[in-house]
Design goal:
Keywords: Activator, DNA-binding, Nucleus, SH2 domain, Transcription, Transcription regulation. It comes from Bursaphelenchus okinawaensis. One of its GO terms (molecular function) is DNA binding. The structure is a single chain. The chain is an alpha+beta fold. The protein contains 19 helices and 20 strands. It folds into two domains: about 325 residues, STAT transcription factor, DNA-binding domain (Immunoglobulin-like), CATH 2.60.40; about 160 residues, SH2 domain (SHC Adaptor Protein, 2-Layer Sandwich), CATH 3.30.505. Strands 1, 3, 4, 5, 6, 7, 8 and 9 form an eight-stranded antiparallel beta sheet that branches. Strands 15, 16, 17, 18, 19 and 20 form a six-stranded mixed beta sheet that branches. The chain has a two-stranded parallel ribbon with strand order 2-10. α3 runs antiparallel to α4, α5 packs antiparallel against α6 and α11 runs parallel beside α14.
Length: about 600
């Protein structure tokens, strides 16, 4: 067997290894993490260097014994000193391991959970941080592996000196560290809509991607040993997930109602993404006819079977479980709203399958609503559409204040999450069955009002929103205040606070009079709002879209000519001075 840090055979020249497997001539006491990303975490650098210093003391003593140049007296002195060094080193190992697991990876996973309601671009920014974490895990793993190599040598050549116990303790730390280095690096969405509007479709309407990834592990030959290994994926209920929390060896079987596709993937090693099994284009298939209500209250998880082998006789066998999600047979907005709150505010990382809290802070709620709104805007209209990775348009502070104010925060700026589900904020006129004129007004809770506006924006006005032509969340009084500050005729496109699913166009004409016009979903289906603003006589003479977009240029109408070139400017005539004047001879 070739001596290597992964073989368990000790040799001094193999005690220092870089992450690519080449022997390093620089001692760890002189090293800090080599990448800028890892070095940016000063806490890790301090802890890792402290561990490396203790390892260096252990290494120097073992090296001296291995050379055979130590006298019997010196050898006995070293063999008595090494256990004390190992005690300190194991303490440092536990401290660094706890930081990497309990702080670095845990905080990343908590953020990952919250961002599952966000756009793919936002999620990708957090995913990219795994490269730095992978580097940190690799550096720590190298110290563990090299320590195990030294302990294997000591236990073999100096039995009954207590090194077997140290070897067992370091192996235990290593096993824990390596197993929890395997993570669900891409989570399923909070809601999988089984079939959209058509309930007879067998497969879910939109695909999603998940991924299992191993952080670090190269020093233990995980990348070499696990390349092309298959990872199985099962769809399980949250009841099964709860059993797995108390018994990791609980048998997992195929779900009775749904199938997950694909059911397996292969581990592959990539330079920039580490060792990962990618489950791309995942969909849910139903086995038979199901009622909407029969599954709407259930929660499901993805369960990945892990079975990989590391060096030093360490087998990593177990299961990794995703965040819980719902499978809907047809859309149910209330279920989506509850899952949104769960992903945004429940502590599912540290307390799996825990309940959603009852309150949230102003800032957390504002951020969550912003991310959810942005995510709805990028929902594809067809199952064949792909979602581009584009940075979403952020909410302004005024918009955040407006949407949070409607949730009625208390004096401590805390929002009762029940308000999101139950607080009526708008009204909808519902026709009586069989009538085209008679009906009654129905109160609409916050989540329906909020989701409906995002859905309408996605379907009918997305380009205008992305171009900054829609102000969005704004009440009537605020709109009039903003328009009164505009010196020229201007219109402002906003969402109705009172009438459910309506878009309002607030207009200040050239005489300074402000009017408000509304459009519902039927109106927007029949004609794009951009065309409506250019062609409807109600907006004749309007020059700008708030705050200062020239309406013809912004909406793709006729190009605005350079009409101010030969107009007197120094005496500052009123804006309407030239309204009834034009050139006597037209240019052809």
């Amino acid at each position: 067997m070739d001596p290597s840090p992964s073989s368990g055979v000790y040799s001094p020249e193999f005690m220092d290894y870089e992450s690519d497997g080449r022997a390093s001539t620089v001692s760890f006491s002189a090293q800090s993490p080599a990448t800028l990303a890892a070095q940016s975490d000063t806490t890790f650098v301090i802890k890792h260097n402290a561990t490396a210093e203790l390892y260096q003391q252990f290494k120097d003593d073992v090296d001296y014994i291995f050379t055979g140049n130590a006298s019997v007296k010196d050898q006995n002195t070293l063999l008595s000193r090494i256990p004390m060094t190992l005690e300190a080193l194991i303490t440092a190992f536990n401290d660094e391991k706890q930081y990497l697991m309990g702080e670095v990876l845990c905080n990343w996973a908590i953020k990952q959970q919250k961002l599952t309601v966000a756009t793919l671009w936002t999620q990708q920014q957090n995913y990219n941080l795994l490269s730095a974490i992978d580097t940190q895990f690799e550096y720590f793993g190298e110290l563990l592996e090299q320590t195990l190599s030294g302990l294997n040598y000591l236990a073999e050549h100096f039995p009954n000196r207590g090194f077997e116990e140290f070897l067992t303790r370091v192996k235990h730390i290593t096993h824990y560290f390596l197993f929890y280095s395997i993570i669900v690096s891409k989570q399923p969405p909070s809601v999988v809509v089984k079939c959209g509007e058509a309930e007879n479709h067998r497969r879910s309407r939109f695909w999603f991607n998940t991924e299992i990834r191993i952080l670090g592990g190269r020093a233990f030959n995980l990348h070499k040993n696990s390349e092309n290994l298959q990872v199985q994926c099962f769809l399980i209920t949250d009841d099964t997930a709860k059993r797995l929390l108390s018994n990791a060896y609980h048998e997992v079987y195929e779900n009775e109602e749904f199938l997950i596709e694909p059911p397996a993937s292969i581990l592959h090693s990539e330079i920039h993404h580490g060792l990962a099994a990618k489950f791309d284009d995942m969909r849910v298939s139903k086995k038979g006819q199901l009622r909407r209500d029969s599954v709407a209250t259930k929660r499901y998880c993805l369960c990945y079977n892990i079975r990989v082998t590391a060096s030093h006789g360490i087998d990593l066998i177990g299961k990794k479980v995703s965040l819980p999600f719902a499978i809907l047979v047809g859309p149910k907005t209330d279920v989506e709203a509850k899952l949104f709150l769960e992903r945004s505010f429940a502590d599912l990382v540290r307390k799996p399958l825990s309940d959603t809290p009852t309150i949230a802070s102003y800032r957390d709620m504002a951020d969550a609503l912003e991310m959810k709104f942005q995510s709805i805007l990028e929902t594809p209209q067809k199952s064949t559409d792909t979602i581009p990775l584009i940075q979403p348009k952020p909410f302004s502070n005024n918009i955040k204040h407006h949407i949070i104010h409607r949730l009625k925060p208390d004096n401590n700026a805390q929002i009762a999450l029940e308000n999101f589900m139950k607080l009526p904020v708008a009204e909808e006129f519902c026709l009586k069955r069989g009538s085209t004129t008679e009906g009654e007004w129905k109160l609409v809770p916050y989540y329906e009002w909020f989701f409906k506006l995002a859905e309408m924006l996605n379907k009918y006005m997305l380009q205008m929103w992305n171009d900054g032509l829609i102000y969005g969340f704004c009440g009537k009084d605020e709109a009039e205040h903003l328009l009164n500050d505009c010196p020229r005729s201007t219109l402002l496109v906003r969402f109705s606070d009172i009438e459910f699913g309506k878009i309002k166009v607030s207009v200040k004409d050239r005489t300074g009079v402000i009017r408000h016009h509304w459009y519902d979903q039927t109106d927007l289906q029949s004609r794009p709002l951009s065309r409506e603003l250019l062609s409807n006589n109600k907006y004749n003479g309007v020059e700008f879209i708030y705050p200062n977009f020239q309406i013809d240029m912004a909406l793709g109408g006729r190009e605005a000519g350079n009409t101010n070139v030969r107009k007197p400017r120094h005496l500052q005539p009123t804006p309407v001075y030239f309204d009834n004047q034009e050139a006597a001879v037209a240019n052809f």
